[in-house]
Design a protein that fits this description.
mainly beta, four-stranded antiparallel sheet
Length: 120
């Protein structure tokens, strides 16, 4: 059974950093496209960053380029999102998602989300 469990969200001041974790079980992150979406109430969910390790494909949404870094710990089967220089507009619920076929809006597996609030 595939499960994704996010952690690491919280309240931080603008300019600060947070590291989100996505612990995966039931599959190996090396074999899937894995990444992060975020959603603000009343807005559409947007893709933030993804990686497909087997192909070395990386994606970052334009507004987070240079500030966010996606990585993984193979031994822990966990994907991370290091978020630096956070801005109030980064405030959202962040969801981890995974799919064996690739990255897109209709991922097969989703976590329950972890909230991130950036105060100005």
């Amino acid at each position: 059974q595939v499960q994704l469990v996010e952690s690491g969200g919280g309240l931080v001041r603008a300019g600060g950093s947070l590291r989100l974790s996505c612990a995966a079980s039931g599959f190996t992150v090396e074999d899937y496209a894995v990444g992060w979406f975020r959603q603000v109430p009343g807005r559409e969910r947007e893709g933030v960053s993804s990686i497909r390790f087997s192909e070395g494909r990386l994606y970052y949404e334009d507004s987070v380029k240079g500030r966010f870094i996606i990585s993984r710990d193979k031994a822990k089967n966990t994907v991370y999102l290091q978020m630096n220089s956070l801005k109030p507009e980064d405030t959202a619920v962040y969801y981890c998602a995974a799919d064996p076929l690739g990255w897109g809006p209709y991922m097969d597996y989703w976590g329950k989300g972890t909230p991130v609030t950036v105060s100005s």
